[in-house]
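Hi P.,

Sorry for the delay on this. The queue was packed all week, but I finally got your sequence through. Input first:
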Amino acid sequence: MNKNDFFNQYKPKSVDFEMPDGNKIRLVELSLGQRGELQSLVTDDSARAQAVIVTMSCPLFTADDVDKLLGMPGDLISSIATAALGLSGLNDGDDDEKN
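Then the structure:
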């Protein structure tokens, strides 16, 4: 395998996350760089970290949406963040993201 094959063959995993109303949003596995960005957030502000995880993993949102997400129901944002972490191999074995 050459370098180009390596970079072209391995793409982030994705999954459709089912919302409470039955609609679905697409979640994409976090990149290595995004994982690194989360390290300081998780210990400093876990609520903000969850909102950032959602913006990083869901193409529907951008970094500008973090403050709006902080105003959303905590259980909803937490469940999306948990699913994104699971998809990225970063949770403690919970497989809630496979709705």
